[in-house]
Sequence to fold (365 residues):
Amino acid sequence: MKDKYTEKVMDHFRNPRNIGEIEDADGIGTVGNPKCGDIMTIYIKVKNDRIEDIKFKTYGCAAAIASTSIATEMVKGKTLKEAAKLTRNDVAEELGGLPDYKMHCSNLAADALKKAIEDYKKKKNK
Amino acid sequence: MFGNNEIGTIEPIKEIGKITKKHDILFHSDAVQAIGKVPIDVNELNIDLLSISSHKIYGPKGAGALFIRKGLELQTIAHGGGQEKGFRSSTHNTPGIVGLGKACELGKKRMNKDVSHLTKLRDILIKEIQSIEQTYLNGHPEKRLANNAHFRFVAIEGESLNLMLDDKGIAASTGSACSSKKLQASHVLLAIGLNPEEAHGSLRLTLGRLSTKDDVEYVVNELPDVVQKLRNMSPLWNR
Fold:
């Protein structure tokens, strides 16, 4: 079963980066559905339009955990504008690829991040 | 199925046999999982056809057998040389056939010893693993195969659990959709009334003649930490 995942996926699965919650998060984004077996929440802390801190929690397979982990690494310290450009393909590429059938169900980190950024903007404009 | 391959439940074969006999219906039972663990008397159970497989009873892989009640006329699906009374053409797999026969002979002799050994180990797994919070046994608590323990863990997903156990040298399997290319949860778990979420968090542990108490204790010691690690990552775990 391991063979279908790259070493990088297994590394992020075994040692996820930025795991946890941010209690006073500026933006929170959740995507997925427990029915499908994947759900992820991303928390961001924003300062001067940059993602100063980012944490996540994921319920799901190794691909779901690894893709959220690496996505948080990819955007930490980036401006919101840069971070919002992150796509599912960027995440999969950074992981050295994902099995085809995992691309759509588990690779949702970019969507969760976009939701977190939207949430931040909504709260800010209130 | 005589004994379910996923959750290990032993079906009420005798009752089914009575019904099929009464209504003159042919009764086939897949006993691949049950053979060697449950005594099977095809006459007493009114079974007309029974399938078994060699590798499940420590015989060579690639051989199996179909019991056909005398007098039944089945149509072959393999035409050709007419081997096995015309029923299964193709050169006999002699080592496989002899191996299966021997495995049955030994399996029958060892069944009581095997079952008591497996039951003891299985019951340790069931008792200890169920003591992990929000963890439940799938399948029947007593009417289950001696080698099968099947659980579900709230708020974690089976493929992740399986991979982490694999890292610890523990080989298990899951009914989670995420580990199947079809991305569908196990039809067995859904059929017994679990929702997809519950099916995703399931784990099957099976034992064999060579499993030891040390093996089981190792699993029982390692599993709670792995479950907790995954729950700590899970947004569905509220504690």
